[in-house]
Amino acid sequence: MAKTKMASETIESKNKALVLEAFDTLFNKRDYETAQRFWSPDYIQHSAHIEPGREGLFNLIKSLPPALKYEPGTIVADVDFVIVHGRFSGFLPVNWIAADVLRLEDGVLVEHWDVIQDEATLESSKSGLPMFGDKFPR
After folding, report:
1. Distance between CA atoms of residues 66 and 29, nearest Å
2. Are strands 96-105 and 108-118 parallel, antiparallel or unpaired?
3. What is the DSSP letter of 95?
4. What is the pLDDT along the chain (138 residues), one digit of tens a residue?
5. What number of other Cβ atoms are within 10 A of residue 91's Cβ?
6. Reduced to 3 states, what is the DSSP secondary structure of residue 70?
7. Closest residue by Cα to residue 86 from 76, 74, 78, 77
8. What residues does 104 pair with on adjacent strands?
9. What span, in angstroms and rounded, lies between the C-alpha atoms of 15 and 89?
10. Calpha distance 102→110 (Å, rounded)
11. What pLDDT does 7 receive?
12. CA distances from 75 to 28, 37, 58, 106, 120 (A)
């Protein structure tokens, strides 16, 4: 039993690292050639904001201003599923906070779902707490 749990934790750690590297490569570095190794050619996209497949995702990023920035926050994994809570900024008047759910298979991203919300300001936050990190955006 302990051996199985250790193997699962290793897979989960590898999958979290892979997702973080993939997101940085695509969203921040805009290295589309390298990004191809992270996303399956048969990538399934469930997002309302993105055209189907890997090409839909890459084409969306290519269409956004160079100021686009992705910042990861909390990341959790359950074997082949990874959820990362992050901030997308630099392309809309309001930042987006997203929970991206990814399914991996054989070390590549094969499926994606997301939940996206405009980031609240201090003035608009009913809780008085930021949605991402420990500070409100400026």
Report:
1. 10
2. antiparallel
3. -
4. 455 666 666 999 999 999 999 999 999 999 999 999 999 999 999 999 899 999 999 999 999 999 999 999 999 999 999 999 999 999 999 999 999 999 999 999 999 999 999 999 999 999 999 999 999 987
5. 15
6. strand
7. 74
8. 109
9. 24
10. 7
11. 63
12. 18, 21, 22, 20, 21
Q: How many whole angstroms separate alpha carbon 115 and alpha carbon 131?
A: 13
Distance separating alpha carbons of residues 66 and 90, to the nearest angstrom: 8
DSSP state of 31: -
pLDDT at 137: 84
d(CA 97, CA 72): 10
Given a contact cutoff of 8 angstroms between Cβ atoms, the answer to whether 67 and 108 are in contact is no
Structure tokens at 6: 């250790």
d(CA 25, CA 19): 10
Structure confidence at residue 72 (pLDDT): 98
Residue with tokens 């926050």: 73
- The per-residue pLDDT for 2 is 56
Tell me the CA distances in angstroms from 7 to 11, 13, 49, 74, 78, one per residue in order: 6, 10, 35, 22, 12
- For residue 74, what are the contacts with CB-CB under 8 A and spacing of at least 6? 84, 85
Which of these, 4, 19, 9, lies nearest to 74 by C-alpha position?
19
